[in-house]
Amino acid sequence: MSHPGNVARGLKAAISNPNNSEEAKERASDRLQEMEETGELNSREAREDNVAIGHKAALTNPNISEEAKEHSAQVLDDIGRS
User: Fold this and answer.
1) Which of 22, 44, 48, 65 is most buried, by the most CB atoms less than 10 A from its CB?
2) Mean pLDDT along residues 33-62
3) Helix ranges restricted to H, 17-80
4) 33-47 pLDDT per residue, tens
5) H or E segment and range at residue 12
6) Alpha-carbon gap, residue 4 to 32, rounded angstroms
7) C-alpha span between 82 and 74 (Å, rounded)
8) Distance (Å, rounded) from C-alpha 43 to C-alpha 58?
9) Strand, coil or helix: what is 62?
10) What is the C-alpha to C-alpha distance for residues 41 and 62, in angstroms, rounded to an integer?
11) Entry pTM
């Protein structure tokens, strides 16, 4: 299954791409609006994915302390995303 955030980013890119037809832009706009109305972008799964993405980024960020990296690793382990 596709990550809702990635789908939304792709739709927004399609809408703003000058090389896409007006029909393609309209379809992308309709799908994005549908995702917003159904709450697909605000689902628990979408939130958990965003949390995992942030903690994975923290593990590789050289500006993050070892203590913070250990915390992020523990959170990822706890949510089964290690």
Assistant:
1) 48
2) 88
3) 22-38, 44-60, 66-78
4) 999 999 888 778 778
5) helix 4-16
6) 10
7) 8
8) 23
9) coil
10) 30
11) 0.58
